Amino acid sequence: MGQEVSMSPCRTAIVAACFLLPVVPVGGCSSSPPPQTGSFNAVTRELEATIDAPLDRAFAAAEKAVKAMKFATTSARSDVLQGVVRARMADATSVDIDLRKVTDGTTLVSIKVGTLGDASVSRTVLDELKKGL
Hey, what domains does the chain have and what are their CATH numbers? Predict the structure, then answer.
């Protein structure tokens, strides 16, 4: 009644590979810093970017960006390894800018706006910060 179809070993391997290939993991952790344009971290809800500027210049640019956007600065402090700028928008949404020295000429900037991390506003803050460099 039914006809039995046999496949060659080569064809069987190809068919198996087609089903298994999508299962192979291709992502992973990266040790490279985020690009200057910034990448939004879905876990921490922060926009992260590595900028070509020493920490002191990046910190000054962060303070300048907060003032230019007319946010109310609640805290701003830095040392030789890191800087922190905390501010509030007109609707009391928090704006947190963390800076960390990577090398003498590069700084990692992390920006989080609000509790859930607004990617669009974070990118606007980063763009304003880069204008001040």
Answer: 33-131 (3.30.310.80)
Query: Which structure tokens are listed for 18?
Result: 């087609």
9 has pLDDT over 90: no
Q: Model confidence over 57-79: pLDDT tens digits?
A: 999 999 999 999 999 999 999 99
Model confidence, pTM: 0.73
Q: Running DSSP on this structure, what letter comes out for residue 93?
A: -
Pairing of strands 72-78, 46-51: unpaired
Query: Which two three-digit tokens encode residue 54?
Result: 């020493």
Measured in whole angstroms, the distance separating CA 59 from the mean position of its chain's CA atoms is: 18
CB 78 within 8 A of CB 60: no
C-alpha 63/C-alpha 58 separation (Å) is 9
Cβ burial of 77 (10 Å; 0-12, 13-18, 19+) is exposed
